[in-house]
Here is the input.
Amino acid sequence: MEIASSYRETYFQLSLTGQMWQHEDLEMLERHVDICFKAKRPWIILDLERLTFLNSQALGRLVRLHMRCKDAGGKLILFQPRSNVLDVIEISNLPQFIAIANTEDELTECMEII
Here is the structure.
């Protein structure tokens, strides 16, 4: 998996490419998230448009990331997940806890309280 990060005034966007299932992938995501928190930016957008696969360990990591953001007064938003990735996310009932935006307008709505 590859991660590209971009910083905005109030949030970080992490764009994931490839598959998120190996331990190294999860550790790399954690390192990027740590950078966000060190910069005092607990609002994180995970752009999943180019993510093709994730497993149950990756889902667990998303839940932990969501809790870290929430505890720090921020929010995790999953942006533009592919249909197969979205299916896994929905089967796991994550949309009950984690915001998902499929369009720029939905993303704007999710971020209105920043």
Notes: The two ends are 29 Å apart (CA to CA). The chain has one domain: 2-110. The longest helix spans residues 23-38.
